[in-house]
Write a structure and sequence with these properties.
Blueprint lengths: L4 H26 L44 E5 L5 E5 L11 H21 L5 H7 L4 H10 L1
Antiparallel strand pairs: 1-2
Length: 148
Amino acid sequence: MQLSDEVKLNFDTFYDDRLKTMEDNLNEIKANKYYESITINGKNKYEAGTIICNHEPDCNPDGYYIKNIYPYFPYVSYTDENGINQYKYFGTYGNNYVNSKKEYDNVLKNEIIPFCDDLLARGLITLEEYDEYTIADPLDKYVKLYFD
């Protein structure tokens, strides 16, 4: 790509500044001056430091960050035979979400697994993607994502 020297400098400066901010935040975490809290279907509060929350509806005045699993928006992303990215959303009652583990179990069994079985047989998703989309409990997915 042909870029002017000014554009290259601005690009480098932008990313250098972002890296510096990340480094500063990591140093504050190391010094126990800065905290970032994520919980799953519950609350977590640190006794010291700052709670960081980027999503206002997920924050409450007590300084908690709450991540609810439900409503959960199950979907499958894949590339079809024509090379076009496709998204298939699943849910109950005509919605693209489920409100409980019981609803999820029903949608998983009757919609997601048969759909993914077909995609896997046609070679449109990998076994790893199949396992991700057909996870038995969305809570496991988020616990692994945030705590492993």
